[in-house]
Amino acid sequence: MELIAVFSDNELFNKGIFDRTGISTLGSYSVSATSSHYDWAIKKIRVRIRTL
């Protein structure tokens, strides 16, 4: 989160700012690597707990 906070909203959510992100935005990668990933993992853990 500290690394993401360094970037401005413009840098995070406008396409074409960083060549390495291709047609996506840095913000979309950040969401995928943080909140979306944890949401996915929590769902997987809950399913596994229910099956035990």
User: Helix proportion of residues, in percent?
Assistant: 55-70%
The fraction of residues in strands falls at under 5%
Number of domains: 1
Most strands sheet: none
H/E element string?
Answer: HHHH
The unreliable regions are none
Integer-rounded radius of gyration: 15 Å
Number of helices: 4
- Inertia-based shape: elongated
Euclidean distance between termini CA atoms:
34 Å
Computed structural class = mainly alpha
Mean pLDDT: 92
Strand count: 0
Protein name: ClbS/DfsB family four-helix bundle protein
Pfam families: DUF1706 (PF08020)
Organism: Prevotella fusca JCM 17724
InterPro entries: DinB/YfiT-like (IPR034660), DUF1706 (IPR012550)
Outline the structure in words.
By secondary structure, the protein is an all-alpha fold. It has one domain. Helices cover 65% and strands 0% of the residues. The chain contains four helices and no strands. It has helices at residues 2-5, 9-13, 26-33, 35-51. The longest helix has 17 residues, at 35-51. This is ClbS/DfsB family four-helix bundle protein. Pfam families: DUF1706. It comes from Prevotella fusca JCM 17724.
In short:
The chain is mostly helical and 52 residues long.
List the helices and strands and how they pair.
Layout: H1 2-5, H2 9-13, H3 26-33, H4 35-51
